[in-house]
Amino acid sequence: MGNDPDYKKPLSLATTRAHQLAMSVMMYSPLQHVLWYAKPGIYHVPAEVELFTILPVAWDDFKLVAGDMGSYVSMARRKGDVWFLTTMNNSVGRTLWVPLDFLEPNCDYKVIIYKDADSKTINKVETTLEQLKNEGVVLNNALHISLKSNGGEVVVFGERNYTSIHNPDGNVRPKLKLYPNPAFDILNVDLEALESPTVRIWSLAGEKVYERKFQSPSAILQIDISKLNKGVYIEVVETLQVKFTELFVIK
Question: What are phi and psi of 106, to 5 degrees?
Answer without folding.
Answer: 60, 30
